[in-house]
Structure formats: structure tokens, C-alpha cells
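Q: Protein A?
A:
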Amino acid sequence: MEPLYGRIRDYAWGSRTVLARLQGRPVPSEGPEAELWLGAHPGDPSTVVRGGAPVSLVEALAADPERWLGADVVDRFGPRLPYLLKVLAPEAPLSLQAHPDAEQARAGYAAETTDPELTHRNYVDPYHKPEMLVAVSPFRALCGFRDPARSAELLDAFGVPALAPVVAALRGGLDGLRDAVRMLLGWPETERAELVGAVAAADVPARYAGAADLARDLAGRYPADPGVLVALLLNHVSLDPGEAIWMPAGNLHAYLYGAGVEILAASDNVLRGGLTPKHVDVPELLRVLRFEVLADPVVKPVPVVPGVVTWPVPVEDFALHGVRLDDAVGSATIEVRGPRIALCLTGQMTVADGAGSTLLGQGQAAIGPAGGGPVTLSGSGEAYLASVGLA
């Protein structure tokens, strides 16, 4: 294991405190800091030190892929790190979005790469982007469609006559859900502000107060965006620290507030439908969306060994372990596959494998090659260990 230096993305929705405090820098930061990236995605790769100078992790992996990645990872994913580890710090809602599956990503990337007249890209790489986020503070998110019948009752409670066709469509079940989303995202531009304003001003029964608060919050940020209404069709999830949300391909979602550790397939493909000043492509979003009920997007931690938990998800691209050590549990050894990245979130830990060891303080990270064998963490604090999910 050796030190790994991540990159911070300064999207407008980011916090000015979370990442600065994590890394021991002055608080508040000069500008919003949304994500800390730890990985080898070419959009913002982390670095390692070689000869006293920083070297892109992309270059380091390319120089010796068999050592870093291992033959089974190269065979399955090609000569690249298949996952990306992040710390997310949203202080304002992210865009309403979904991610393509593997086939959609390959086809979309190929089509856009050969289109000489394209001005905005949806597909920046040919890979899918399933993702999981583990809350490290209370975290709120919109995750997947709820039962359309419940959404029909909710929208009807707002008492906005213009929404009657949408309510009727939702009462038609999953087939109607597709029509409802298409109607809302295709709402005439000249009438959007009036519709969103009417919903934000509505007086609803007490049992729908949470949804009304969400609508007012989003409407205050995006007063002419029908995505405010689409957000009401999704599960509103509140996570306690240690709980996770799993977002498979094609599920509409938006993270709202909190701090979390996220692991995802190493892709930056995003199809946006609203709640953002960025490029929105409604037809392409509708094409990749899965109009299905995501009954329970929350993943509970599963104990592995004392002090260690994991969150099982059905992908091979990544796996994640959470580690909490104290005087009672001073060390833990974890069996992992492929290249591994450790992030110390609090306290101080030594992380070691067969390739070496390094001492991590709060906010520091390390990476080890595929042949390093089990990883042992010792010390006191909280850490996360990313690896591939191959069996």
C-alpha cells in the first residue's frame, strides 16, 4: 500500500465545510467542494508519487497493468481500474438523473463519437455506472420510482387542476408511469413556471407535508422546471450513518443533502432530466429509464469480521468494506480481490498488505496492487476499503 492523492470537483452543489474539514484545511473553503475522487477515471485521475513527483494513476496503471490490476481484472474489464471511490458532499440537490446499462453506454458512446455535428455529449465513456452510496452523516435522497398509485394520490392531494391527466396516467400503473413522466418532462415551456408555482403554493393534508416541503425547496431553486414534479414520483429516502443506497442502471434519482462515501463503476455517464443548469436530454433519458418500482433502495450493512461490515450489491466492478476500530477492536484483516484503495475518514490507521504499508490520517488514502493479498488495518477510527467484486 502506498499514498494516493485524490482530486476535488468543485460543482456548485457542493459543501464548503465537509471536504475541507475532512482534509484538515481552513473551513469554510473558498468555493463549493462537491466530490473527492479516488481512482483512475481519465476525467480527473488521482496521483501517486514516483521519483519525488506526482504521477497520474492512469499512467501508473498503464505502465504495469498486470501488477496493478491482476490478470483476472484485465481479462474481465480491460487494462483499467473498474471502480471509482468518492466522498460526496451535497449541500444542495443534485440533478434528476439516471445512468445507462453496459449495452446502452457502449452504443451511445459509439454513436456520439461518430457524430460530427454533436454539441453536447451524454456519453463520455463506453461504460455503465451502477453506484452505491454509504451515508457518513444523515443523508437524504430521491431514489427510484415509488408505486404509481401512491404517486397519483400524492399529486391529487396538491389540488392542481392541470395535473389531472398526469394523475390519471399514474392510476394506470407502470404503463401509465411512463406516460406521466413523459407528460411532465415535456410540459410546454411557457406553462412550466405556472405549474411549478401552483404546486409550491398548494395547501396539502398533513400526511403529505414532507412532499410539500420538498416541492417548495426544489421550486425555490428551479421555479420553471417540471423536474420538481417528477421528483415527487420517487422514493424519498432518509439514511442514518452506515446505511447505503444502491442505484442500478436506469433508475431515476437525485441526491439531496448530507455526506457519503460512494463507490461506482468507473464511468461519468449521466442522463439528466432536470433540476440542473447542465445539459438536459429528455428523449435519451426516457430511453434509458426503467419504469419499474424500486420498492426498497436501502442496503443495510452486513458484518464480516469484528469491526468490519460490507454492503452486498450484484455487480463485479466493485465491493466496499467499512471499518471501525477502537481499543476493543484494534485491527482487522479483510480478504479482497484485485487492486484496493483505502480511505481513512476519521482517526489514524495503518493499512498494510503484502505489497507494503502506510500510515493514514484523517482524509488520507492509499492504494495497493492486485497481488497484495489480504489487507490489514490497525489503529483507531473509521475507514473504507474499496476493491473489485469478482468472486
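Q: Protein B?
A:
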Amino acid sequence: MKRPALMVLFGLLVATSILMGCNDKGTPELDELVTMMTGSFSSQAQAEADTNFFDIRLEMKPIWQDKVDPGQGHYLYVEQAAGWALDKPYRQRVYHVTDAGDGVFSSMVYALPDPDAAIGAWKLDAPLADLVPADLIEREGCAVYLERQADGSYQGSTREKECTSTLRGATYATSEITIASDQVLSWDQGWNDAGEQVWGAEISGYVFLRTVH
């Protein structure tokens, strides 16, 4: 092989190595986490077995896959509604899931500028196509930090009292999350200044079983 050809081949190998080094940090596990988060989930079985819980439906769908560079993480549109009022969701969010390094994955939480316009967007092939990340409103301090467990699930929570809340007299909220291939366990609670719980499940979190991938 002639020297110029060798130099071209070497340059291509170096370029490929650099690109892989920039983009593959945590990529397999990050993609695995987002795949596990994606889908339709329901707490109906839990509600039928325990009257302390309601029948809640959870929808999570990736968005902006053609707008966001893979190295910037993944965005998901998230919608929660009572089983008897699916057209009136009580929570609509966008999660930005990234590899934070050292085995930790961050799921930042954003509110929408016009939630009503996004109702049912998870049913679309390209949800929130008219928005870009800059349009979102960050819920500062409400990010959930997850780590992969030995059983393959991802488990984590918000940090201390960083996620502020004014719902029903609360001053801050906490979230504990476990994401597995077949279910999502979510425990959201609101607390006042005295450290007393003022909203959310009291005994344990909600168990959302996967219904659709």
C-alpha cells in the first residue's frame, strides 16, 4: 500500500476513534435506560389490590430525535392521567435524560409553555414537533439522579430539598424512582417547612406496570 493511502487510512481511524470517544461514554446504558422508560404504563393492578392507590396511566415517548445530537442525551414527553380521565392529564413534563458520568444518569424535568396544546401528544409519530428545547421551562432542583443496579434496573431520587413545590401547602417535593424493563416504581411526596408530608402516597410508591412498549 502506498504511503498516501496509509496516511488517509490512519487519519480515518483517528477521526473515528475521536468521534467514538466523544459519543460513546455511557451510551449503551443510557440507551438502555431510555428504552426502559419508553412506553405505556398503568397502576390499575395496584389500585384494584389496594384502595390507597388510584388507577393512573403513565405515557413516556422519545421526542426530537431528529433535532438533538445524540451526544446531548435524549428527550421524552411524559403524560400522566387518571384512568377515568385520560383526556385531562394532571401532569405533563419533558424529561432530558443524560449520562452525568461516574455511573450516574440525570433526568432533568421541564414544564411545557402550553400544556393544553400537548395533551395526547404521545400518540403522535413526532410529538412536540413545533417546539425546541429552548421553549421548555426547567423545574430547577427537580432532576432525578439514577444508578444502574445489579439486577439491571435503574434506581435514584431527587436531591434533598432542592425541588420546590407550593402544591397543597408544600415547600418542597421529593421523588424516588426505580425503572425496570417491565415496570416503573414512582414515589412522589410533598413536604412543608416542618418536614410533614402534605401530599403524595404515604406507605409506598406507585407501581406502574408496562402495558405497551
